[in-house]
Specification:
Length: about 300
């Protein structure tokens, strides 16, 4: 990836989308009680404006609440007590997304040596908050294989933006995208060994590499607007949830990058939530009470371009 190529032009307009995410569960016996927690509402951020948003649940929940989690994400809880054999959760959001702020790429923090971006609890403020994103997970993800893979990129004194863009390109080049090759529970060390996975795996490899060097990195969930091949119509529902990573910059900003597509995050990415790992921000997680032995889940995501407001 060429950093200069990825610096966004100032005259690129914002893009507007209607994002529809439908999750449909079906069971072979009656569910008497269903608890769920969703991270399906995109963030209202500098560079991203949520104009309209709603999450609907069918059957209608008996209890429901929407709040802000510890990382600042919007989450929705629900409890359905109506007996059912099918549960559908639909999230619809109208959102405007700006191009990446060029200052994140050309500003002082990104151009300084990467070692200067290590946060310390002693500094207070945004540094202290970022320290949590340096810590390894349990079980550990920072292994000898991760350290060895990161080492060639993290040469002393290199500008942080050069380190991030090179790491992004290396992961994109060295790992093969293969749908179904991993599961949510697949460890980073397994991905390193197999050299294949999907977007969340590549984001987690990048995060482990950054943390292995004392940098703060977070896992970001969201959506990617995909354009149809030349001469083909858009297929409604053909999009998917996406994941990428972001590295902390001194001053409290974060530089997001997408190893799956070898690029910095731009106006085609819709940010939903972030945390230390996927487990902090799954789109939907829950518990059911049932005698059902089989269930099926169908997920449809559509990121449809719409006229700007």
């Amino acid at each position: 990836m060429n950093p200069a190529r990825d610096i966004p032009a100032r005259d690129i307009p914002a893009r507007s989308y209607l994002v529809t995410h439908v999750t449909d569960y079906s069971y072979d016996d009656t569910v008497t009680s269903s608890y769920g927690r969703c991270h399906l509402t995109p963030q209202d951020l500098p560079g991203q404006r949520v104009l309209e948003t709603e999450v609907t649940i069918d059957p209608h929940p008996d209890d429901r609440s929407t709040g802000i989690d510890v990382f600042g994400n919007v989450d929705t809880y629900f409890h359905v007590r109506t007996p059912h054999t099918r549960l559908t959760v639909t999230a619809r959001t109208r959102v405007d997304v700006d191009p990446l702020d060029p200052a994140l790429v050309t500003g002082g923090a990104a151009l300084r040596p990467w070692e200067s971006a290590r946060p310390t609890a002693r500094a207070g403020g945004s540094d202290a908050l970022a320290v949590e994103f340096v810590l390894d997970l349990t079980p550990p993800e920072i292994t000898d294989a991760v350290r060895a893979y990161a080492a060639p990129t993290f040469r002393p004194g290199r500008p942080l933006i050069d380190v991030v863009t090179e790491l992004t390109t290396r992961i994109n080049t060295d790992f093969t995208y293969r749908s179904g090759s991993t599961a949510i529970s697949t460890r980073v060390d397994t991905v390193m060994d197999r050299r294949e996975g999907v977007c969340q795996d590549f984001a987690r490899v990048a995060i482990a590499c950054l943390r292995s060097q004392g940098l703060a990195a977070r896992y970001v969930s969201g959506y990617l607007a995909t354009d149809p091949p030349p001469g083909r119509d858009r297929m409604v529902g053909a999009d998917a949830s996406h994941a990428w990573a972001a590295v902390w910059l001194p001053g409290g900003t974060w530089l997001p990058f997408d190893p799956t597509n070898d690029k910095l995050v731009d106006e085609r990415h819709v940010t939903v939530a972030w945390g230390r790992d996927y487990d902090d921000v799954p789109p939907l997680r829950g518990v059911i009470y049932t005698d059902s032995r089989r269930s099926k889940i169908d997920v449809s995501v559509d990121v449809a371009p719409v006229s700007p407001t």
